Amino acid sequence: MIKRLVIFTIAIMVIATSVLFCQKWYISSQAESLSYSLNAIYIFHFIAYLIIVVAVELLSKKLPNQVGFFYLASVFIKIGFFVLIFKDAIFAEIAMNFLERISIIIPFFMFLVFEAIYSGRLMNAQ
After folding, report:
1. What residues in the chain have per-residue pLDDT under 70?
2. 78 CB contacts (<8 Å, ≥6 apart)?
3. Which pLDDT belongs to residue 73?
4. Is the four-CA dihedral 88, 90, 96, 100 of positive or negative sign?
5. Residue 97 near residue 34, CB atoms below 8 Å
6. Which of 50, 58, 63, 71 could form a disulfide with 119 if both were Cys (CB 3.0 to 4.6 A apart)?
7. CA quadruple 78, 79, 84, 85: dihedral positive or negative?
């Protein structure tokens, strides 16, 4: 359990850090700036990833048939917390441009895929 979790999390950290730096490089090359902190969004998604993955791992030991339902519920809770925490950036009076919108979507879907891969592998292993 611990070995699988640590190896997968280290791989995710490397990938997420690479994508973050590429995204920041692209934004600076376009001479643009975001109205929110891109680092904060990545940190939020990484912490949410850790919580979901650890909870899925622990739940798989007690209720292996309920892991998929828990993962689905956790994704909706994650979206709710994201909107709650970043509501000023998302619901600002000034409309976001394409670069700002895509900069929110990229980490969301990237970590969503990572969580789904981990949960799916865990469910298939049992």
Report:
1. 126
2. 48, 52
3. 93
4. positive
5. no
6. 71
7. positive
- Whole-number Å distance between alpha carbons of 34 and 79: 21
State in Å, rounded, how far the first CA of the chain is from the last one: 12
Q: Give yes or no for a contact between 20 and 85, defined as CB atoms under 8 angstroms apart.
A: no
**Which residue type is seen at 96?**
M
| pLDDT given for residue 53 in this prediction | 92
Instruction: Kindly report the pTM of this predicted structure.
Output: 0.89
Give residue limits of the domains in the chain.
2-125
pLDDT at 65: 83
What is the C-alpha separation between 1 and 53, in angstroms, rounded?
11
CA atoms within 13 A on the CB side of 73: 7
Judge contact between 102 and 40, C-beta under 8 A. Answer: no
**Chain center to CA of 68:** 17
* CA angle 56–78–84, rounded 5-degree value: 155
